[in-house]
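Input record, target 12 of the design panel.
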């Protein structure tokens, strides 16, 4: 049975972002995607990949031409916003600064003929009232969405940063922003790390269903952490556990429930894959390739 999803390889997987991970330049990554059997890619919109600083009009045209030559769809650009950056300093226009950055990326996306731009909300800053930070994000997302709309670009807000990482608040946030081109890049790994599985995971997808326009797969295992206390001759359990990446289907994220929720929501869009953590087997190109191939085989079985 053919999968209803379009598999996408995210270039962060080959961007040297984690200890020991291999780095491929953009052209090598595009060839790698074709070699592995992908027909759609998402490109990191910063160095070492597609930074606006490095891609003038000629470079954008050349990249667009290379994508055509290779038969690849550029499904999305992946932006890296933080709408609360600097908010602890009075006078810093955090929302405006990030929205201006988004407009630059939206123009880049339009020039590369992709209608999607993934972004984040904001990290929570100490010493600043929560509602002040939340309000700055609402303001920034509205400004960013309005700017992106001029280029025909949809914003995909990922449940990644602190604020609105939980699905209930993410749904509240997007409803409050109320811009038609501001949607959700809703992933399963964040609810999993928040303790959701089974019916609770399905309900999370149901809550987010009106906004989901993208999802990225990453599978993880949890390693409990302990610290040795010599006075007790024993180990003390630490508050935060260690997270390691494994090939999809081999970890603890409840993707069976997540995809059940996606099917109930009739989602048939892009499903990206990223190796964006320390990976089982290491970060050699050979291991990254093996893991990416596992994703393609695994995703083909998720259609129901």
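The sequence produced for target 12 reads:
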């Amino acid at each position: 049975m053919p999968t209803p999803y379009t598999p996408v390889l995210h270039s962060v997987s080959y961007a040297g972002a984690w200890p020991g991970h291999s780095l491929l330049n953009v052209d090598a990554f595009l060839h790698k995607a074709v070699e592995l059997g992908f027909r759609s890619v998402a490109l990191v919109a910063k160095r070492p990949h597609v930074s606006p600083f490095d891609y003038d009009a000629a470079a954008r045209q050349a990249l667009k031409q290379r994508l055509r030559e290779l038969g690849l769809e550029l499904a999305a650009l992946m932006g890296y916003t933080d709408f609360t950056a600097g908010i602890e300093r009075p006078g810093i226009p955090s929302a405006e600064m990030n929205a201006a950055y988004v407009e630059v990326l939206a123009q880049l996306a339009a020039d590369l003929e992709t209608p999607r731009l993934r972004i984040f909300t904001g990290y929570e800053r100490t010493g600043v009232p929560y509602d002040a930070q939340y309000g700055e994000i609402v303001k920034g997302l509205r400004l960013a969405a309005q700017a992106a709309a001029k280029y025909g670009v949809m914003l995909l807000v990922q449940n990644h940063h602190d604020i609105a990482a939980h699905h209930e608040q993410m749904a509240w946030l997007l409803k409050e922003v109320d811009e038609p081109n501001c949607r959700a890049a809703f992933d399963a790994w964040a609810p999993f790390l928040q303790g959701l599985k089974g019916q609770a995971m399905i309900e999370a997808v149901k809550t987010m269903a009106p906004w989901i326009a993208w999802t990225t797969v990453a599978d993880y295992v949890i390693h409990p952490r302990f610290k040795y206390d010599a006075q007790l001759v024993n180990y003390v359990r630490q508050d935060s556990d260690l997270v390691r990446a494994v090939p999809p289907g081999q970890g603890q994220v409840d993707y069976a429930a997540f995809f059940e929720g996606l099917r109930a929501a009739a989602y048939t869009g892009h499903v990206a894959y990223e190796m964006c953590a320390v990976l089982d087997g290491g970060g050699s190109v050979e291991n990254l390739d093996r893991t990416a191939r596992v994703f393609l085989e695994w995703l083909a079985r998720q259609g129901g």
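The two ends are 9 Å apart (CA to CA).
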